[in-house]
């Protein structure tokens, strides 16, 4: 069987980390595409030279022309600009929409059969725009945010309970950003839900509330520390988990920004919900029961995404 082909569109901090992880995991041959001349070629060469030491079999190349992504099985999109301190994800809207238009055209022409994972912010609107620009079926175009947001939640919970991160599962719904909805009762340590752990005296509601807030602000916390950009290790590893589920038909149930067609009462919108990712892309959307508080939180989140979609349509009338 021929090796799979992974196209990384955007070769910056996340793009380079994606290439490293995809090579170490031998997911396939890797092409890094970027508009910056020399950058993708340099990163690909550097990474290829780590191959003999690590012992991975993967061909790495860099390119400034979309032809190089021809026939890709997976495209992971990070092209655009990240946040600087003081900027919100939404401040990136105008500039990154233009980037999505050119990336979408490139994918449409050269990789129409790919599974596309968008990471560029503001995530929920960018993945919606990218799907329109590339014209691929909505089940083949998803956004990465929920895996990262729930990983952040899991990390903080594991620290709080002083247990292995391996035993902590967590669930986050809604848009990527300040309105994301971490679901406490679906979050657990080895099957014991967090509310039960509070009753057992392992933590307090106040501490868990603080963790929820820290999860919501997880990206901004890293931006303010790094000062020159945003998180990249955890975002990259989260997208690779999604790509692996597609390439190996693992059928993982992962929170992703998926195209809703009435689920949760929402239509024609990309927002974070639990989905099964397998060889057909998004194979199923899990519609879990929400209580009134979760419903209100989810609605607030969807309203925020709709607000940005409306702004996007005024900037780019071709999206209307
Ligand atoms: P960065 O290191 O700046 O890399 C972006 C790359 O995109 C640069 O190498 C640019 O040259 C390249 N680029 C710009 N315009 C184009 C274009 N038209 N075509 C191709 N390449 C282009 O940023 P990063 O890797 O740190 O972040 C990438 C994106 O991910 C940003 O929009 C971040 O805000 C976003 N991000 C999202 C999450 C989520 O959880 C959704 C987390 C962290 C970062």
List keywords for this structure.
about 325 residues, alpha/beta, Rossmann fold, L-2-Hydroxyisocaproate Dehydrogenase, Chain A, domain 2, 2 domains, six-stranded parallel β-sheet, three-stranded antiparallel β-sheet, 11 helices, about 20% strand, globular, binds 3-acetylpyridine adenine dinucleotide, EC 1.1.1.37, Lactate/malate_DH_N, tricarboxylic acid cycle, L-lactate dehydrogenase (NAD+) activity, L-malate dehydrogenase (NAD+) activity
Describe the secondary structure blueprint for this structure.
Layout: E1 5-9, H1 13-24, E2 29-33, H2 39-48, H3 51-54, E3 60-63, E4 74-77, H4 93-110, E5 115-118, H5 123-134, E6 141-143, H6 146-161, E7 168-173, E8 181-189, E9 192-193, H7 194-199, H8 205-216, H9 218-226, H10 233-247, E10 252-261, E11 267-278, E12 281-285, H11 292-315
Parallel strand pairs: 1-2, 1-4, 2-3, 4-5, 5-6
Antiparallel strand pairs: 7-8, 8-9, 10-11, 11-12
Helix pairs in contact: 1-2, 1-10, 4-5, 6-8
Bound molecules: 3-acetylpyridine adenine dinucleotide (A3D).
